[in-house]
Amino acid sequence: MIQMKKKSLALFALFFIFVAAFANGKKDLSVKKSSDKSFSYDKSGLVIKSPANESDTVQIAVIATSDLHGHIYSWDYAVDSPLNGSGFAQTDSIVKGIKEKYKENLLIDVGDLMQENSSELFNDCDIHPMIQALNFLNYDAWILGNHEFNYGLDFLEKNILGFEGRVISSNIKYADSGKNFVLPYQIYEIQGVRLAVIGCTPTQVTTWEGSTPEHFQNLNFISPMDSVKKTIKSIEGQYDVLVGAFHISREGEFEDEGKGGAFQIAKACPELDLILAGHEHAVYCTEVNGTWVLEPGKFGSHVALATLDLKKKNGKWRLLK
Ligand SMILES: [Zn+2]
Fold this sequence. Notes:
The protein has about 325 residues and is an alpha/beta fold.
């Protein structure tokens, strides 16, 4: 079952929970600020979400948000008025409901968390409130969007280190070493099912940040199509379910238009079981070449939900279409 959940309006105020969480001092919010040279993202290895058991069936809910753009509460700070149907506070109650129904789940944000709604006023925080929100809501993965690069690498790196889940994008490489800036993919094990998530970020960061090249110093953004294909090949045999989490539009744009979008990647990479997209601020849920592609709008207006039913046959997990 694949569906998009529209938010209801009567939801609780996360603010008080945030205040309580920070006031009791349980969370260590201190993060070492890194310089360009010392930054390295060394989280790696399998993440075991839940142990395998005897059952030969499992249902996993893959839940996604995208393009929150600084919206924690349902409020537009530019005009100082409510913005109904927006914000993490509402997302949280939707996600909680889904998690109650589907005990095995994975929660992903597909990028552009930062920028807009006066959220830059908090850029000096050790960990930006949007990342604190991801941590508070127990997100498993954060895919880097283009707007994550708006405020420079020091800002981005301290927030990457401050996120408690995994930061994923397969197509951002160091120009000098060719190494990945963050994780190209992450494999999560859920009741013995190995679910791989591959991320990607728009290559146009270098154009959009062209007036401030220090915002992507020593980084190359390679074609999502190429990086996804290469990453899939590199993890052949290591996963049971393959999820693309792409901060790119359906059809691609500029030099990638018509050849590097989520739909084209779906057509070119039949190994992908599901694609969670972002960047376009659109709401859609459609099947392309046998792969479901979903995008959950903007500012937290929607939550994307894909439920995956799997059955073990001859020792191998198979996704029931
Ligand atoms: Zn966006």
